[in-house]
């Protein structure tokens, strides 16, 4: 019996709509996600993950196409911090076995900048552990930033702790492009993870950064025992502050910290959180930060359909995966690394 291979005149089936697609359509048209819808994303079933990622990826594609930006972290001063942030291996209450040293000399900071450039990073993140920078640390940053920018053409993100208005102005004057200062969690939960400074202190620093004319980089950590409402609150606060770059960390519960043993995140939890932040902050740079290798594991590629940025190499006191693995992941997705400053 012959088989008829002629084209069918029937109309191809139309993909059925779902709530995530409807919300994406609204966001893509300039609308906003509600807090109740954000909650529904975080409470969605694992069986809905692929539909959620697909909807979020449509938003990512509109604003960032197929580009991925790489960040390189330099722990310029390790440990010795007087704050009691419960998640941090460098805090005064941590017993974690980590290197402890004052701000590094110029040659080591320059060598790290060279590595950042060689690894395809667009942004070099200069980080110190401190409540805030002292005068010696401020001068070290002011001296090194112009040299790094001239020699390697990297964007500079400084993470120096709490800043005064005058310190923010000085960072702008020396060429710092953006300052990282994470909110870390929602305002109501903040007192449970830190008592030596407040959520309001962090918001004030971000306002100083904005008023100085630099970009704000601020995100948080998922998996510290917070509620869904705390995560939603953080996402909307970042939106209201107008933060340009949002790193989303997944708790790496380091032994010796008060949060050691907290390890209840699944890859699906991480994807839900990333998607919710993308919906709430559609045109903001969203970065998969610390803990991605530990918690997303084999689903890291799905994360990059939502986020448009990752750290390459190691983190502050924990190891990341080999840069070659990140490059391969990006190539396999058909994405392009953005390296040109200003893109």
UniProtKB/TrEMBL annotation:
Q: Which reaction does it catalyse?
A: (4R,5S)-dethiobiotin + (sulfur carrier)-SH + 2 reduced [2Fe-2S]-[ferredoxin] + 2 S-adenosyl-L-methionine = (sulfur carrier)-H + biotin + 2 5'-deoxyadenosine + 2 L-methionine + 2 oxidized [2Fe-2S]-[ferredoxin]
Please name the source species.
Roseiconus lacunae
- Annotated SMART domains: BATS, Elp3
Matching PANTHER family:
BIOTIN SYNTHASE (PTHR22976), BIOTIN SYNTHASE, MITOCHONDRIAL (PTHR22976:SF2)
Looking at the record, the residues that make up the Radical SAM core domain are: 63-289
The similarity comment for this entry is: Belongs to the radical SAM superfamily. Biotin synthase family.
Extract the PROSITE patterns matched here.
Answer: RADICAL_SAM (PS51918)
Protein's pathway: Cofactor biosynthesis; biotin biosynthesis; biotin from 7,8-diaminononanoate: step 2/2
The GO molecular function terms of this record are:
biotin synthase activity
Look up the record and name the cofactor or cofactors this protein needs.
Answer: [4Fe-4S] cluster; [2Fe-2S] cluster
User: According to its UniProt entry, what is the function of this protein?
Assistant: Catalyzes the conversion of dethiobiotin (DTB) to biotin by the insertion of a sulfur atom into dethiobiotin via a radical-based mechanism.
What is the primary gene name for this protein?
Answer: bioB
Q: How does it assemble?
A: Homodimer.
Task: Write the protein's name.
Answer: Biotin synthase
Q: What is its EC number?
A: 2.8.1.6
Show the InterPro entries listed in the entry: Aldolase_TIM, BATS_dom, Biotin_synth/BioAB, Biotin_synthase, Elp3/MiaA/NifB-like_rSAM, rSAM, rSAM_sf
């Amino acid at each position: 019996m012959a088989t008829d291979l002629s084209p069918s005149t029937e109309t191809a089936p139309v993909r059925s709509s779902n709530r995530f697609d409807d919300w994406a359509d609204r966001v893509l048209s300039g609308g906003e996600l509600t807090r109740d819808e954000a909650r529904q994303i975080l409470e969605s079933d694992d069986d809905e993950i692929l539909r959620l990622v697909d909807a979020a990826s449509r938003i990512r594609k509109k604003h960032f196409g197929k580009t991925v930006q790489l960040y390189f972290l330099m722990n310029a001063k390790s440990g010795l911090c007087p704050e009691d942030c419960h998640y941090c291996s460098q805090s005064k209450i941590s017993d974690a076995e980590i290197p402890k040293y004052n701000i590094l000399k110029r040659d080591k900071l320059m060598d790290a900048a060279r590595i950042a450039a060689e690894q395809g990073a667009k942004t070099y993140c200069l980080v110190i552990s401190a409540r805030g920078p002292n005068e010696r640390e401020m001068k070290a940053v002011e001296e090194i930033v112009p040299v790094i920018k001239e020699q390697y053409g990297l964007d500079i993100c400084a993470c120096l702790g709490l800043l005064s208005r005058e310190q923010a102005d000085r960072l702008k004057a020396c060429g710092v492009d953006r300052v990282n200062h994470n909110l870390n969690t929602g305002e109501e939960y903040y007192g449970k993870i830190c008592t030596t400074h407040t959520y309001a202190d962090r918001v004030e620093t971000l306002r100083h950064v904005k008023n100085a004319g630099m970009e704000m980089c601020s995100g948080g950590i998922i998996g510290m025992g917070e509620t869904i409402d705390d995560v939603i609150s953080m996402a909307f606060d970042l939106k209201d502050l107008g933060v340009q770059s949002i790193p989303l960390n997944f708790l790496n519960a380091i032994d010796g910290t008060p949060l050691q043993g907290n390890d209840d995140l699944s890859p699906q939890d991480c994807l839900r959180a990333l998607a919710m932040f993308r919906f709430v902050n559609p045109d903001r740079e969203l970065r998969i930060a610390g803990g991605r290798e530990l918690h997303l594991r084999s689903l890291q590629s799905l994360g990059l359909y939502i986020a448009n940025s990752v750290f390459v190499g190691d983190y502050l006191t924990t190891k990341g995966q080999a840069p070659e693995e990140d490059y391969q992941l990006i190539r396999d997705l058909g994405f392009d690394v953005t390296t040109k400053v200003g893109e």
